[in-house]
Structure formats: C-alpha cells, structure tokens
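tool_call: predict_structure(chain=1)
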Amino acid sequence: MITIKNSQLSQDTVTALNAIIDLDIKAGEAFKLMRMLKDLSSIIEDKTKLEKRIFEKYVERDSTGNPVEAVDNEGKVIPNAVKITDTFSFNKEMEELMSVENTLSHEKLNFDDLNLNSNVKVKDLLKIDFLFN
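tool_result:
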C-alpha cells in the first residue's frame, strides 16, 4: 500500500510518471507505473476540482462578476493574483484539502527494478519519490 498526501500531488506528478514510462524500462515495471498513473490521475483530478471550488468560494468579485486583482501595500497590482474575501477560512480549507491522505492499493516499487539509465531527470524522480522503497 502507498499512502500519499494531496500536498504531494499535482499535474507535475502525472508528467513525471509519463516521462519515466516513456523511457526504456522493463515492461512489467512500466505496467505497474501505468496502473499507478491511472489511480493517481483520478485523485489529482478530484483534488483539482476541490481546489477550484474553494477558490471560487473565496475569490472577491467586482460588480460584473470578474475576480478582483490583488494589490500590494503601495496599490500596485500583483500579477496573476486575486483578492480573497476571507483568507483565514480559505487557508484553513486549503490546508485541510492538502492534508488528506490517499491510499493506493499498489506496492511501492524498487527503484533498481526499473533499470533506468541516465536519461531520467532527478526533478522527475523527486516528484514521485513516494512510489519507491
């Protein structure tokens, strides 16, 4: 069994798994990774939906329904940021969501069994280290 917190999962997890599956690894290990990927994709999709729901619940909107841009102490717009109506509640709900633990019915893999060569990127491995013994 593999236990993973939501905070460890993102679309980058899927991308990293796909990158390793695309490498020349043993067929049996590739199959195991593909099964894990299927389960993880479903969890990540649900997590993303809930993140959006929490965001929509707390984002401040103007009179036309558009998100209000966040500004710094000098009144300058903060790029790619919006105002949140209740940051305490927003943070609390996001923390609760991120702390949820998911259990996969798969056994952890032995890294050496993948027979990876030097083509694998360390940054990809770091995103999925919870899958290995």
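agent: The chain has four helices and four strands. Proceeding to next step.
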